[in-house]
Design goal:
Helices cover 35% and strands 15% of the residues. The chain is α/β, with parallel strands linked by helices. It has a single domain, classed as Alpha/Beta hydrolase fold, catalytic domain (Rossmann fold, 3-Layer(aba) Sandwich), CATH 3.40.50.1820. The chain has an 8-stranded mixed beta sheet, sandwiched between helices.
Length: 289
């Protein structure tokens, strides 16, 4: 049988999900994040290129590792087809100032890697930190996770528990989750240009949408935010995910960021006194090992 025809492109949805088009200059926004990342590498001890997944060769950079420190895995955005760990070091300074190490990962990019493979790699990074972080002196009783945009989606895809059981991780090993400007229901993307590189079917979109696979509440906080200057589509994704999490009994903690766009919201993580930094530090500290 022939596969069903791809959904027609919806011009309005395409505009709504155009993150780069939502700012005056994506190049300027990205350059600011790169500058923050370069400063992070100058100011914070970093272990570079630690391979966490031999199958793909993907590696992470570990910022601020020190004895007894908890660790957060940071997952970059870029609509699953762009971005890298070097340009995402900005996620480390704020948390490191409060005694939290930050692991910034790479993952294989679409369209060379299907989205299911990217999700596998992110989960493998969590497994690697759980199994190897203690060698760096880290407190690995909980592995915390954060990400923005596509990275917010991937962070949310660590919430389902089946993969953790299959990997032999103890129940409750996943800690606090920070999800910024994420894409939690992929169905609308089937009618945008984004699916030109993702190549998702309707079945794929549902299987890989975290909003449809929420586990029972674990007690670990989930910090959610989206910039007030982002498009209605991104704000709606976060609002719907927040409602779904709350309905499932999760400790969901929204953080309002009214003056921020899809990109500069992430740069606030470089600030030890930033609202997102403070919310995530509080979430990490409140969790009982």
């Amino acid at each position: 049988m022939n596969p069903p025809p791809a959904p027609e492109l919806d011009p309005q949805l395409d505009r709504d999900y155009d993150a780069r088009g939502s700012v005056a200059s994506f190049e300027d926004e990205y350059a600011a994040l790169v500058a923050l990342s370069e400063a992070a590498r100058r100011d914070i001890p970093v272990l570079r290129d630690l391979v966490f997944d031999p199958a793909s060769g993907m590696a992470l950079d570990l910022y601020g590792a020190a004895p007894g420190r908890p660790v957060m895995l940071w997952i970059h955005g870029g609509y699953w087809r762009a971005g890298n760990k070097a340009d995402n070091g900005f996620a480390a300074p704020g948390l490191a100032a409060h005694g939290v190490a930050v692991a910034v990962m790479d993952y294989s990019l679409s369209p060379d890697a299907p989205l299911a493979e990217i999700v596998r790699q992110v989960r493998q990074a969590v497994i690697w930190l759980a199994q190897n972080g203690a060698a760096q002196g880290l407190d690995t009783r909980r592995i915390h996770v954060g990400g923005s945009s596509a990275g917010g989606h991937l962070a949310a895809m660590t919430l389902p528990t089946g993969w953790q059981t299959e990997a032999g991780l103890e129940a409750g090993r996943l800690g606090a989750v920070l999800a910024l400007s994420g894409l939690y229901d992929l169905e609308p993307l089937l009618r945008t240009k984004v699916n030109g590189w993702l190549g998702l079917t309707a079945e794929d979109a549902r299987e890989l949408s975290p909003i449809h696979h929420l586990p029972a509440a674990s007690g670990a906080p989930i910090v959610l935010s989206v910039g007030g200057q982002e498009t209605g589509a991104f704000r709606d994704q976060t609002a719907r995910f927040e409602a779904a999490l709350a309905a499932a009994g999760h400790d969901v903690r929204p953080v309002a960021m009214p003056g921020h766009n899809h990109f500069d919201i992430t740069g606030t993580l470089a600030d030890p006194d930033g609202a997102l930094t403070r919310a995530m530090v509080a979430a990490i500290r409140e969790i009982k090992p």
